[in-house]
Amino acid sequence: MRVLSGIQPSGRLHLGNYLGMMKRMIEYQESSTLFAFLVNLHALTTVTDGEFLRKSTLEAAADFLALGLDPEKSIFWVQSDVPEVTELSWYLSNHTPMGLLERCHSFKDKVARGVSANHGLFAYPVLMTADILLYQANIVPVGKDQKQHVEVARDIAIKFNNAYGDVFALPEPEIEKDLATVLGIDGQKMSKSYDNTIEIFADEKALKKKVMSIVTDSTPLEEPKDPDKDNVFAIYRLFATPEQTEEMRQKYISGGYGYGHAKKDLYELLLEHFRPHRAERERLLADETHIRKVLKDGAEKARAEAEITIRKVREAVGINY
Ligand code: ADP
Ligand code: TRP
């Protein structure tokens, strides 16, 4: 079984990315053929600063490696190092109805928030489809917001297979049942584009500042509070053991436990949770040459797989006269 997922290196990775995608991917390396990659071509739909993209790509790679992604057990690379993906994207465009893309929530949301729509943003799901089909992925673990994009990939694969025979495996999204969407410090979906994230590897001071700025209601310290309506508790429970969660729940209900206390407990929990990974990340970032080598080796493995599919596709569409 082939498991594949990608993440945009378009800024510092956050707790939503970690729980929605990275953690599960890393678990999969033990049981499946794992394809994990940094989708820098997709990041171009929002990032226009080349230096920032270069830096963010290396940092995202360090994040994954520090969190336990093992390049020996999985295929880990940067999207643009396998140029066949843009070639495939063009073939697929010719089997992608406009309506399919017009219905994509992600596109509609961005436009509704005032992002000026260009062709890259509109065609984003086609490039993502190429990512998935090029490696014949079966399972695509993503957060809930990306489910529709994987369904689009499946639709396009079916259309293409109907036209040319069984060229592509049909992918399926895999969404963690217990985890809908991780909320940000303002109570909205945590997202790099909403400026409401808690970064996985923020330094201690920045982490404290972020946690302290989580929006809560104004129930006074001594009064009982409803844990199920609070953003601090919502994040705490994602990282706490069941016992720790229950303990905090009781403190909320009993009163005499303020949001300031809850934030301090959350801060300490996060610090503790990522402590060993933080040290590993520092070590990795001190040697960028090593990170580049890991990524280039990964790209070589990915490209060998991509070659097999792209040959079949060229043959099917008749491009190899
Ligand atoms: P962002 O919204 O911060 O730009 P991406 O769109 O790059 O994040 O998402 C990368 C991966 O992380 C996807 O699989 C996405 O579903 C997941 N993800 C992002 N934000 C969240 C969240 N708040 N909760 C759960 N999963 C998330
Ligand atoms: N669109 C995904 C996101 O924003 C990133 C992505 C690009 C991806 N290509 C992919 C995810 C292929 C899974 C598979 O999160």
DSSP strand content: 5-15%
**CATH architecture descriptor of the largest domain:** 3-Layer(aba) Sandwich
What class would the helix/strand composition place it in?
A: mainly alpha
Ions, cofactors and other ligands present here are:
adenosine-5'-diphosphate, tryptophan
Can you tell me about this structure?
The protein is mainly alpha-helical and about 325 residues long. The chain has two domains: about 1-180 and about 285-315, 3-Layer(aba) Sandwich (Rossmann fold), CATH 3.40.50; about 200-280, Tyrosyl-Transfer RNA Synthetase, CATH 1.10.240. Helix content is about 55%, strand content about 5%. It has 13 helices and five strands. The strands form two sheets. A three-stranded parallel beta sheet has the order 1-2-3. Helix 1 links the parallel strand 1 (about 1-5) and strand 2. Helix 4 (about 85-95) runs parallel beside helix 13. The two termini are about 35 Å apart. Tryptophan binds near residues 6, 39, 42 and 132.
List the helices and strands and how they pair.
Blueprint: E1 2-7, H1 15-28, E2 33-38, H2 40-43, H3 50-66, E3 75-78, H4 84-93, H5 98-102, H6 105-112, H7 119-134, E4 139-141, H8 147-164, E5 172-174, H9 204-212, H10 231-239, H11 242-254, H12 259-285, H13 288-317
Parallel strand pairs: 1-2, 2-3, 4-5
In short:
The chain has 321 residues and is mostly helical. The protein is 56% helix and 7% strand.
What descriptive keywords fit this protein?
single chain, 321 residues, mainly alpha, Rossmann fold, Tyrosyl-Transfer RNA Synthetase, 2 domains, three-stranded parallel β-sheet, two-stranded parallel sheet, 13 helices, globular, binds adenosine-5'-diphosphate, binds tryptophan
